[in-house]
Amino acid sequence: MLAAVTMPSEDRERLLLALRRVDPAAFRRELRTVLLAHEALDGAARALHVAPSALAAWLAADPQIGAGIDLAP
Fold this sequence. Notes:
By secondary structure, this protein is mostly helical. It has helices at residues 12-22, 24-38, 41-48, 52-61. The termini are far apart. The model has no long low-confidence stretch (mean pLDDT 87).
């Protein structure tokens, strides 16, 4: 039996930043979907595998992402 081999995971924050550059609408949809599911900044950041400060900065830079979402502290 072969042992399971895993590849190092891609840096999720770097991938999201690349998505923001090439498809801003898809970036917003990705973040909004996770924010709606978790309704909290820290939980959404964990789900996205990014630092809460990075997610907070993205929300501050583009208020449309979090528009109408009531995020718990």
